[in-house]
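Example 9 (inverse folding). The structure is encoded as follows.
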């Protein structure tokens, strides 16, 4: 695997490092958005795209090339592990599927499950194939190839039902840990399979681990240990994590996890988050409003970009991004405005 440090001479990382004349990188989150965009471009149903590795890779490559983005990500929805273990999804015409029913109805059934096999279970082989295609078609010094998956709490919610999972964090914590262990083992195998195909580092999306869903104390008990396990056993030089909702109370815990170097945040005060990170070499990613990106005018998008840069751009270590995955139907004009505004307001020195 090519060392990520070899990319430090690219314009992207010079912007991260706040070198004079370079700009804060603009990296909109394009996971499910890429499925919607490619479905409309090719007139192919979303389910067909998501069940075919070549189509699935083409969706990300289509959006990355259209907006001249320096990265691609292998995954596009947050039910991969759950579906691989038996969860039922409802597939929709032009967007990512929604969770319909969990893999198991009763926590006692967890003993009947084994970790998912990335080579044969559910859509995991589709993502592994996507990684192979990225490595063949997008690998370059200036590009970043990201392996990805949902995080352990989100995956566990897909396996047993989110309400069931959270209620039993109080009532039957030992069973919840068994679910989290199965989810984490599945994630580890899945991510390593992607890295073997040439992906360069890992991103996890774990929105259900936010303080909007569980308390900081439950985060320490039910999320942090499994992040540490994943980081230790997955062969990635660095990790990125995206957690929607409130994360300021757990940000210190996140940045203390080894190799956790990119924290993608949603609706938080970026100045406070930057202050908590302090001098640690951890990149903060976010948090341009997805609502403004979807429904706002170009001038509103520009103002929103300027807000984020004013809050967190000083000294670098900022990746300007949408607060979460771009909504289906986000206008092309607004995506281009976001990218251009990053250069307009985010070129160093600020």
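The amino acid assigned to each position is listed next.
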């Amino acid at each position: 695997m090519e060392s990520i440090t070899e990319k430090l001479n690219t314009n992207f990382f010079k912007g991260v490092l706040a070198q004079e004349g370079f700009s804060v990188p603009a990296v909109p989150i394009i996971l499910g958005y890429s499925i919607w965009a490619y479905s409309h471009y090719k007139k192919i149903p979303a389910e067909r795209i998501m069940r075919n590795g070549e189509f699935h890779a083409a969706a990300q490559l289509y959006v990355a090339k259209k907006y001249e983005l320096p990265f691609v990500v292998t995954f596009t929805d947050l039910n991969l592990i759950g579906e691989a273990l038996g969860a039922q999804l409802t597939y929709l015409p032009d967007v990512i599927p929604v969770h319909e029913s969990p893999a198991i109805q009763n926590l006692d059934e967890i003993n009947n499950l084994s970790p998912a096999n990335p080579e044969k279970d559910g859509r995991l082989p589709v993502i592994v194939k996507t990684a192979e295609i990225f490595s063949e078609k997008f690998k370059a010094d200036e590009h970043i190839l990201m392996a990805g998956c949902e995080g352990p709490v989100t995956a566990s919610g897909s396996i047993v039902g989110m309400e069931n999972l959270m209620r039993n964090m109080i009532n039957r914590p030992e069973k919840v840990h068994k679910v989290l262990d199965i989810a984490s083992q599945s994630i580890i195998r899945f991510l390593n399979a992607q890295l073997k195909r040439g992906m360069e580092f890992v991103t996890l999306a774990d929105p259900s681990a936010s303080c909007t869903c569980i308390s900081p104390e439950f985060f320490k008990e039910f999320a942090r240990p499994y992040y540490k396990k994943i980081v230790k056993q997955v062969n990635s030089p660095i990790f990125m994590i995206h957690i929607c909702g409130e994360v300021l109370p757990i940000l210190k815990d996140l940045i203390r996890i080894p190799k956790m170097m990119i924290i993608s945040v949603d609706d938080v005060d970026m100045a406070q988050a930057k202050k908590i990170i302090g001098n640690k070499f951890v990149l903060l990613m976010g948090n341009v409003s997805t609502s403004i990106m979807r429904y706002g005018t170009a001038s509103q998008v520009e103002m929103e970009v300027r807000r984020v840069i004013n809050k967190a751009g000083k000294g670098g270590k900022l990746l300007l991004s949408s607060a979460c995955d771009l909504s289906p139907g986000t206008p092309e004009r607004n995506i281009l405005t976001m990218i251009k505004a990053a250069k307009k307001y985010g070129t160093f020195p600020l």
